[in-house]
Write a structure and sequence with these properties.
Rhomboid-like fold, mainly alpha, Rhombosortase, transmembrane, transmembrane helix, Peptidase_S54_rhomboid_dom, two-stranded antiparallel sheet
Amino acid sequence: MIQLPFDRKYILPPILLTLLSSALMVLNTNDLLEFHRDKIATGEIWRIFTGQFVHANPTHLLLNIVGIGFIWLLHAEHRTQSQYYIHTAYLALWTGLGIWLLVPDIKIYTGLSGLLHGVIVWGALKDIQVGMRSGILLFIGIWGKLAWEQYSGPSADVGELIQSRVAIEAHLIGAIGGLIMGLGLIKEKLLVKTK
């Protein structure tokens, strides 16, 4: 039987992330917090970070909440609460800076999807580190998805649902951030094998 990670230390961080994003949607904070290139250029630099936590519409938020839940099911037990918050903050900043520096065509960006791609990549590497073969499949699968997105472009159907262009560049940037976070896991795995 599958044991779900309902322990408070595993369930509290994803619940808080969900509540934060939901509260920002209810309070209609996009004008103040979304990644908006022109406003960042005039000094509103917090948007590089905060744009990750606001969403284009309720459907966009719901899709990201499903992603939070999926990651919780797969990898909740891989992180402490503090690691969850540190990973979330790092990937939010990483993704926002990546968009700012590398994707000038993105004028407005919202959502957790870039950040979530990074968390999935890190989780797959952690799976591999602890000997779970499913981690290899997840790692290959996420990079296959990213390659397909870069080749075929953003999904028009999802874009219609969220009333915004799917920022596939953010997915790739976030995944690279997760890979960088996971370099320590790879190093630990290699060191264990050599001993």
